[in-house]
Structure formats: structure tokens, C-alpha cells
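Researcher: Quick sanity check before group meeting.
Model: Go ahead. Protein one:
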Amino acid sequence: MPASGKVLEDSIRLSRIHKIKLTLYAVQAVMLVALAVLTIAVFGGATVNPYVYIPLDAFFGVLVLLLLIICLESFFFRMLELRFARSSSARHLMAKRSMKRSIVMAVVAAVVVMTLTVPSIVGRIEESRDQSIYVTPGTYPPYFYSSDVFSLMETVSVHVSAPRQIQVYIIIEELFQQYYNGPDSLSVLASYRLNTYDYITIDNELLIEIPALDRFTRFYIAIDAMDDIGVSAVVTLMKEVSGTFTGTTSLLLIAFVVTNVAWVAYLIPVERKYSTGSIYR
């Protein structure tokens, strides 16, 4: 085949590759929107009434998985483009740009992985999100949620400290609304407390583990000071990063880093091969 004919044929092939790539990316963008609706609204139980709850933890895992798939597809398309490129300069430029992009993505993903997996970093994040509440007997009980609005941080335990022995009740919202009729209803609420065993402070302290529920929940904290209304307690809500983040999402991000590093290793000899006759530096 004459050189001019081969150049024309390769140009047509490159054009088709670009069209297929753009079409595939558009389809995957639609898939991402559909998966967002499924993971957030359907499986995640998102709500806007009576309170806003938009769980993003599972969606981020799906997002990273889809980005990993797109990343592998882009490598395949880049290999085709390198094959049918018109000149050594074009191949060199393609390889060089692809390497830079993969290095940047690998570094960003690695930083996120370190943030989600290194215990000292995770611990600092969790400590910064802990929240303290002052609770006084006889007042309307305060409340807290099982997680934040986006389900990125979960409330795993409640620490209570008081100057004397008190009783602490963690009540699910539905039961609290049904049975609470003022301070005199504490004896009734005690029968429906979530913390069946750990509810009395020992040595002026108490740690209550909050069980993981399958839905976004509001909890109320009721304190029974046993007729000593002058006693107040400090309640600290202990938070942890979502298990989906530190588990599934972190593993997918590690795979993302490894994939991009492997791609860079593959491109290094390709970039060097075509750099000699390239007009680009």
C-alpha cells in the first residue's frame, strides 16, 4: 500500500477510535448517574423528610470502581492510538501526556488511601469530629444521629462522665416520641432503652456502644439523676470513619494506584523509543 494510502487509513481508524471512546464514556456517564440514584436513594435509604440524609459512602465505592474501569479502557484506547498514530512525534507526545496523567492520578489516589488507612491520620480525623454535649436532668433530652448527613462518619459509642452516679438511657426516636411525656416519664423510657446493660455510671464514667443499624436513626439521651436535679453530665459522641471508606473504597483505590503505576512502567520504554525522532521535548 502506498504511504499516502496508509496514512489515510490510519487517520480513519484514529477517528473511529475517538468516536467509540467518546460514545463509551457518554454511556458510562449515564451509568454513573443511574448507579448514584440506586446506591443513594434505593439501597442507601436517602431521605429529605423529616431530616436530610444523603449517604455517599457506598456511592464513592461505586465511583472509584467505575473510574478504575474507565482507566483500563483509556489504556486500551491509548494503545490503539499509539499504533495508528501518523508519526513518531505524535506517538512520543501521546505516551508522554498519558504518563503524566497517570502519575498525577496515582499520586492523588495514594494520598487518599493514606488518609483512609493510616491509623494515626484516621485517628486525628475521628477525634476532630467528636462532639461533647452537656446534659442536665429535668430538661428536654438532647439527640444525636447514627451518622452524619452524608454517612461519612458514624457514631459508634457514647462516653458519659458525671460527678456522681447516674443512669443514662439511649432511646430510639420512635420509642422516645411515643413514651416521653416530660421528666416524669423516665421510668417508662428506661424499659425501652437501647443500652440494656450499660446504663449506670461506674466511677463517675460510662461508655455505651451504639449498635450498627440498617438505617439512618436519631437517638435521644435521657439522664436519670435519681432526684438530684443539680447533677449534670458531659456526653461525648465518639465518631469513626465509615467502614465502607476504610474497607471497600480503600481497596479499590489501591487497585487504582497499582493500575496507573503499571501503565506508567509500560509507557516508559515506549516514550523513550519514539523520543529520538520526536520534535517534542
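Researcher: Fine. The other one?
Model: Protein two, sequence then structure:
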Amino acid sequence: MDWNIVLYIGLVLITFGFGLFLYSEIKIREADRKLAQLEQSFKRSKDNGWNEWTTLWNNRQKQRY
């Protein structure tokens, strides 16, 4: 058996695995960024009077029953 072929196959597998690792880290980073943006938008909506609307809604529901 030609050991150079085994060596090259091993190098290709290691390189491919490292490439997949980098790809997964990039995707995880993108998901973290989207989550941070979503959390910021929730905080902004909460600061912009969302609590007032929920309080009004809850009071209206209490008045019905």
C-alpha cells in the first residue's frame, strides 16, 4: 500500500474538519448577534411604553370579570 495516499487522505480530512469547525463558529456568532439584536429590541419596546399597554390591557381584563 502506498502510504502517501494515506497521508494525503488524512491531511484532507483534517483540513475539511477544520473548515467545518470554522463554518460552525461563524454560524454560532451570527446566531448570537441576532439574539443580541432581538434582546435589544425587546428592551427598547419595553422602555417605549410596552408596560403601559400591558397594564391597560390587564386592567381591562379585570374589569370584564
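Researcher: One line on it for the slide.
Model: The radius of gyration is 27 Å.
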